[in-house]
Each structure stands twice: as structure tokens, then as C-alpha cells.
């Protein structure tokens, strides 16, 4: 290169670029890093400094481009070399069978056709153009013919290769247009909205809108702060790839080039397996970390695709089979107020029962007073209700055009509907019953205490809790641990045997981990994840209860709101008394890890190393995530388990050094099953 920069420095910059690309790929695409985050940051910092000192070293495909660049005035537009089509849609098994028939009829083929079937990601379609292996341009789908150029924004996405891997026998293609979907995971979407709420910014309605909004920023430095991800599912113009026989082969090559390909894709399967896969995906969909809204089936053989061709809008060789909508229309019969653990009064819509994606929904949360006002939900209204993941169904929108004037507006009560005490609105727009002895709060607290992720007392159901509170058997949740067989026997529908079983269950539940205990006692803003962080940071309750707000804020993952809430909780005499009463009744915080059970994977951190025999790394990751755990790339003191396959690397040594639990593959399978 003919620049005035010393060749040593030029070499160093080239080395850093190459290494950073490689480590970025290992981390974001393979999920298998070789170096620590700190080492990566140091290399990045060095490259940034070099590029700043010697601007002639800057390259458009430098890893430093991921932080974003100067804002644009507007987006340029580009004609896609091959239109980005949309897909025909179906909804049922019959439509899949019909599609297969149509294909075989058109091709005049009797035997099985092989398809590749993929999750239909609910994000934003993009095209990435690589020239001689370098990302030269990226655009949105637009109207299918003309898209907007969003290159700087796309470069910020860590799972997008800026340069194609050229290792092994693969030749770098002169031109390659990769197509795929940009999306935001459900968890990152929630976190993004939480942050926006605290910054008083408007919330995104769903992950797709968040991804679309993030991609359409004129200032790519804003995009760089959004947790965007990508999966590639096909190509536009790509002469070297479309010379292959099958779509499966194209995807395999793309994977080899360093693109991120969805691990759930099924390659070259016949109709019967497509039907199974559709069922499988539909069941799996709510537990996936990102949103999918159906399955895409593609004729696998490229010569067949050619022969079938496209209409002006859609290919004849592919179809999207959508899942049942998780939104349905129904009527609001009533709006009632429910009292939660913290005394929060939540308006709840009681609905004409409606089937939403296989589950009958008869109630939906309206969150709070402001939300009811904003959506203007009235009793008698026709509304859309929605289920998303495991969360409580919610009212999305009122269909106000069909109102007939008989609808009744809702007023938030000024007093608690259960105990009659005054309700006070707090700074988060939530009305709360001010009576700490409110029986509704106590019931909700006990339900929480008995729940699976807390003390997990199975026999302590809602009806029983209602009785215990209404008959004054318990005045605080600590009293649960003092219940006697004789006492329980007095309750309705409680036989000798069930009373004994419940007593045994309560007895067994008394030994509990610190994280479960912290979750169970119902500190505001402390969910399972935060409880895990606290338990890892403190190890004993005494130290935690004495921590100041500042101490707590110093822990990674604990923000000011949560820290305040924890410190406040432990400063209250009545809370300390309740905790003391629990200990006196025999509750014991076990320091040794409990025997792992499935729900204990919730919030646990795993690192995978070595080759697994019976599953791929991606499958292992899916299993862990489905059980609520997470997978990270490097071992640290925060790692709960290292799963070691065949010829594990240095991660295993590190795990041994740090005393992290190491699991063999069979042990891991026993744990997740
Ligand atoms: S293939 C000609 N595969 O669905 C083939 N599309 O309705 C066109 N999508 O705009 C696309 N996941 O954004 C394909 N695995 C997948 C997909 C997928 C999501 C989106 C894509 C496209 C829309 C088509």
C-alpha cells in the first residue's frame, strides 16, 4: 500500500483487523470465543488509536466501523438486482399438503420432493452485497424492487461479517448478495424498552418494530447501541453459489463463509417430516429467544426452483405456513381491580372466553390506570387480546368503530377493593393499597412464596391460601412454615392424608438456596434473574441485608432503582421480623448447591466446550435456553456449569481452577431432561 505510514504500523493494523474479525466471528456467530472480552476490547482500542493517529489506515471494512459513523442526511435508494419477493401464505397442514401436490403436478414428478424448512423470523428483511469478499453495500427490502441503503447501520451488527471467511478450500466469490432477517431477541427487546421507559422515550410495540426502527436511524451510532442480530436465509445474485444443486448446499456454503444460519433449519426433508416440523416449531415458538411467526418451506433443488419460477410477487417454489395468531378479537365483559403483592391495584379485563393460539383466555391485564386511559378500554368494548410468551395476556387495542354507545368507561377506585383502605398513586402511575395488612396482599405474597421458582410448595394452591388468610390462620407469609397438621385438618376439603402431605412438603421446602429465598420474600423489582445476581454477589443474607444502596449498585446488573428497593426492604423493621420468624420456624438457607432440578436452570450460566456426541452445540444451547438458562462464551467465577464434550479446550482447565461444576454430556442431558 502506498501510504506514508511506516510499514510496521500498517502491518500491525492489518493484523489487528484480521484478528478482531476472527474473534468477532467466533463470539457472535459460533458463540465460541477464544479470548476474553477484555482482551478483545484492548485490541479494538489499539486499532481505534492507530486509525485515529493515521487516518490513511482507515478501511470501510475495519472492525472499528461497528461503532457507527457520522449521521447521514437521508438514505440513498438502490435497485435490487433480483427483486426481493414475498411469500405465499398458508395456515394449515392441508395447505402444506396442497403446496406439495401443486409442486409435483407442475414438475410432473410422482415421487417425494425434498424441501428445506426454516423458521419464519419476524424481523426485517435485508440484503448484504459483498464484492470480492467485502461488505460493499447493505439495503432494506423496501418495496421489493427498490430498497434503502443502510450500510453503516448494518455494519454495526456484530453477527454480520464485514469480510467473508476465506479459509479452507473456499474461493472468495467476486459477487455475493446474501439475504436474511435482522431481528432483536425477546429479552433484549424487553431490556431496550425498560431503558427507554427510564429515559422517558416512547416504547416500541414489539421486537420487529424495534428492529425496524433501529435499522432506519440516520445516525448509525444509535443503531450500534441496539442489540440487533441477523440470520441469513438465502441469496440474491450470487453466481458462485447458485451453481450448486440445492438450497441446502447454498446455506452450508454461506455458513462456511461466516454467515449466521439458523440452527433450527431442517435440510432436505420430505412432506411427512415437514408436517412434523411445523408442529415442533409451533410448540417451541414461545420458548425460543426470538420471535417467529411461522415456517418457510422451500423446494430444495435449485433446478426445480428455476423450472417452477416466480409470479410477479412470489416464488412458486416456496410457501410460508404461519402459526395461529396469538391475537384474537373478543368482548370486555367487565373491568375489575386485582390487588397484587405490593398492594398494586391492577385493572384486569374480564373477557368473553376466546381461544388464542390453543389457550382459552378469559382475562387480560390492563396494566394500570394510565394504560386504560391511553387505550380507552371501556366495559362492553370489542378488543384484540394477545398472548406473548409466558406473560399474562393483554388487551392490545380497542375496536372503537363498532361501539354502539352502551360501553361504560372505567374509573380507578380511590380505595382498595379488598380491605377498603386508601389507595395512593405512586410515581410509576400505579395505585397502591396503603394497608400493609391487606389480606389481598398477603394472599398474593403467599402465592408468590409457594410458587415454583420460590419455595416450590406444590400442595399450597390458591384456594387453600384463600382459606388460610380468610380464616386468620396466617398473619404473615412466615406463618406458612408454622402450620400444623391439626390446624390444616380443620380446613375445608382437607383430609388426613392431604394435610400430612402438605406438612411434609413444607418441611422439605424449608431448606432453600439463597437465590430462591431472595426471590421468594418478594422484594420489589427482584425477579429470579436479579435474585441470582445477588446470591452470587453476596452468598449470605446477613451481608446482603447490611449492604448500602451504593454497595448494591456496584454489582454488575444491579441498577439504582433495584438497589434502592433492596436497601429499603432491609431497612424495614417488619420485613426483618418476618425473615426472623421464618428462620425460627426452621427455614434454612443452604449454602451448598441443592440437587439440580430442571427449573433450577433458570438464570444459570453455562459454557459449552469440546465436541458433543449426541447433539450440536446449537442444540445444547437451545435446550439450556428453553429451560431459562443462558450460554456464554468464556468461563468466569459467574459460570454455573461447564459442559465438556470430546477434547475440551482451555475452558475446562479454567473451570477446574475456578471450581466451576463440570458436566459430562450424559450428566448435562440428565440435568436438562
Ligand atoms: S425466504 C423468495 N426465508 O418473510 C423467498 N423469508 O414473506 C423470500 N422471512 O420478506 C424469502 N424468515 O423477511 C425467507 N427463513 C426465511 C424467512 C423469510 C423470515 C421473511 C422475509 C420476507 C418475508 C416473505
Question: What structural class results from the helix and strand content?
Answer: alpha+beta
Fourth CATH level, the homologous superfamily of the largest domain = DNA ligase/mRNA capping enzyme
Number of strands: 24
C-alpha end-to-end distance: 57 Å
What is the count of structural domains? 6
CATH topology of the largest domain: D-amino Acid Aminotransferase, Chain A, domain 1
Strand order of the largest sheet: 2-11-10-3-9
Helix proportion: 25-40%
Poorly predicted spans: 592-597
Question: What topology emerges from the helices and strands here?
Answer:
Elements: H1 7-28, H2 37-53, E1 77-79, E2 88-90, H3 93-107, E3 115-121, E4 124-131, E5 134-140, E6 146-148, H4 151-155, E7 175-183, H5 186-198, H6 207-215, H7 220-223, E8 229-235, H8 239-242, H9 247-256, E9 266-269, H10 271-284, E10 292-299, H11 302-308, E11 318-322, E12 327-339, E13 345-356, E14 359-365, H12 369-375, E15 382-386, E16 394-398, E17 423-425, E18 431-433, H13 439-450, H14 462-470, H15 485-489, H16 496-509, E19 511-513, H17 514-520, H18 528-538, H19 541-546, H20 549-553, H21 560-571, H22 573-584, E20 588-590, E21 605-609, H23 617-626, E22 630-632, E23 641-644, H24 650-658, E24 661-663, H25 665-672
Parallel strand pairs: 2-11, 19-20, 21-22, 21-23, 23-24
Antiparallel strand pairs: 1-6, 3-9, 3-10, 4-5, 4-7, 7-8, 10-11, 12-13, 12-15, 13-14, 15-16, 17-18
The chain binds 2-(butylsulfanyl)adenosine.
Amino acid at each position: 500500500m502506498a501510504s506514508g505510514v511506516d510499514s510496521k504500523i500498517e502491518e500491525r493494523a492489518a493484523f489487528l483487523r484480521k484478528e478482531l474479525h476472527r474473534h468477532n466471528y467466533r463470539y457472535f456467530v459460533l458463540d465460541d470465543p477464544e479470548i476474553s472480552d477484555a482482551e478483545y476490547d484492548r485490541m479494538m482500542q489499539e486499532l481505534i488509536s492507530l486509525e485515529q493517529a493515521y487516518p490513511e489506515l482507515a478501511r470501510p471494512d475495519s472492525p472499528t466501523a461497528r461503532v457507527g459513523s457520522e449521521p447521514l442526511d437521508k438514505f440513498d435508494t438502490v435497485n435490487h438486482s433480483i427483486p426481493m419477493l414475498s411469500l405465499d401464505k398458508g395456515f394449515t397442514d392441508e395447505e402444506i399438503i396442497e403446496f406439495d401436490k401443486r409442486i409435483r403436478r407442475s414438475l410432473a414428478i410422482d415421487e417425494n420432493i425434498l424441501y428445506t424448512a426454516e423458521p419464519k423470523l419476524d424481523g426485517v428483511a435485508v440484503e448484504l452485497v459483498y464484492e470480492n469478499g467485502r461488505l460493499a453495500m447493505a439495503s432494506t427490502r423496501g418495496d421489493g424492487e427498490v430498497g434503502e441503503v443502510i450500510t453503516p447501520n448494518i455494519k454495526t451488527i456484530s453477527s454480520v461479517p464485514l469480510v467473508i471467511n476465506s479459509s479452507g478450500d473456499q474461493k472468495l466469490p467476486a459477487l455475493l448478495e446474501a439475504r436474511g432477517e435482522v431481528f432483536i431477541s425477546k429479552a433484549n427487546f424487553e431490556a431496550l424498552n425498560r431503558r427507554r421507559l427510564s429515559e422517558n422515550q416512547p416504547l416500541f410495540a414489539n421486537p420487529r418494530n424495534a428492529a425496524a426502527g433501529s435499522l432506519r436511524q440516520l445516525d448509525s451510532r444509535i443503531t450500534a447501541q441496539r442489540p440487533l442480530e441477523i440470520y441469513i436465509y438465502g441469496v440474491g445474485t450470487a453466481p458462485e453459489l447458485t451453481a450448486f444443486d440445492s438450497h441446502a448446499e447454498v446455506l452450508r456454503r454461506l455458513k462456511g463463509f461466516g454467515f449466521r444460519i439458523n440452527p433450527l433449519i431442517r435440510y432436505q426433508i420430505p412432506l411427512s417430516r415437514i408436517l412434523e416440523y411445523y408442529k415442533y416449531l409451533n410448540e417451541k415458538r414461545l420458548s425460543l429467544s426470538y420471535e417467529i411467526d411461522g415456517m418457510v418451506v422451500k423446494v430444495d433443488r435449485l433446478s426445480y426452483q428455476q423450472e417452477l419460477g416466480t409470479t410477479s410477487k412470489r416464488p412458486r417454489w416456496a410457501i410460508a405456513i404461519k402459526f395461529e395468531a396469538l391475537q384474537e378479537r373478543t368482548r370486555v365483559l367487565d373491568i375489575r381491580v386485582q390487588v397484587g403483592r405490593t398492594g398494586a391495584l391492577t385493572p384486569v379485563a374480564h373477557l368473553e372466553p376466546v381461544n388464542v393460539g390453543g389457550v382459552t383466555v378469559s382475562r387480560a391485564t390492563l396494566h394500570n390506570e394510565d394504560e386504560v386511559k391511553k387505550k380507552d378500554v371501556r366495559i362492553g368494548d370489542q378488543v384484540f387480546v394477545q398472548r406473548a410468551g409466558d406473560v399474562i395476556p393483554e388487551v392490545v387495542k380497542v375496536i372503537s368503530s363498532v361501539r354502539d354507545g352502551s360501553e361504560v368507561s372505567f374509573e380507578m377506585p380511590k380505595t382498595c377493593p379488598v380491605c377498603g383502605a386508601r389507595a395512593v398513586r405512586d410515581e410509576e402511575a400505579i395505585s397502591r393499597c396503603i394497608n400493609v395488612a391487606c389480606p389481598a396482599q398477603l394472599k398474593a405474597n403467599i402465592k408468590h412464596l409457594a410458587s415454583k421458582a420460590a419455595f416450590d410448595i406444590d400442595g399450597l394452591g390458591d384456594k387453600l391460601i384463600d382459606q388460610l388468610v380468610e380464616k386468620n390462620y396466617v398473619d404473615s407469609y412466615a406463618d406458612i412454615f408454622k402450620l400444623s397438621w391439626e390446624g390444616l385438618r380443620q380446613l375445608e376439603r382437607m383430609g388426613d392424608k392431604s394435610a400430612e402431605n402438605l406438612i411434609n412438603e413444607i418441611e422439605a421446602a424449608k431448606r432453600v438456596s439463597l437465590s430462591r429465598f431472595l426471590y421468594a420474600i418478594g422484594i420489589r423489582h427482584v425477579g429470579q434473574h436479579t435474585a441470582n445476581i445477588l446470591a452470587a454477589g453476596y452468598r449470605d443474607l446477613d451481608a446482603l441485608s447490611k449492604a448500602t444502596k451504593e454497595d448494591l449498585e456496584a454489582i454488575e446488573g444491579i441498577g439504582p432503582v433495584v438497589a434502592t428497593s433492596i436497601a429499603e426492604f432491609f431497612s424495614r423493621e417488619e420485613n426483618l421480623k418476618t425473615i426472623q420468624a421464618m428462620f425460627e420456624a426452621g427455614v434454612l438457607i443452604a449454602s451448598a448447591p441443592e440437587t439440580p432440578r430442571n427449573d433450577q436452570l433458570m438464570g444459570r450460566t453455562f459454557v459449552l466446550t469440546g465436541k458433543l456426541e449426541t447433539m450440536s452445540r446449537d442444540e445444547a444451547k437451545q435446550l439450556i435456553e428453553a429451560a431459562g438458562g443462558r450460554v456464554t462464551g468464556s468461563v468466569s467465577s459467574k459460570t454455573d456449569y461447564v459442559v465438556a464434550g470430546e477434547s475440551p479446550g482451555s475452558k475446562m482447565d479454567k473451570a477446574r481452577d475456578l471450581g466451576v461444576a463440570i458436566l459430562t454430556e450424559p450428566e448435562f442431558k440428565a440435568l436438562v431432561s
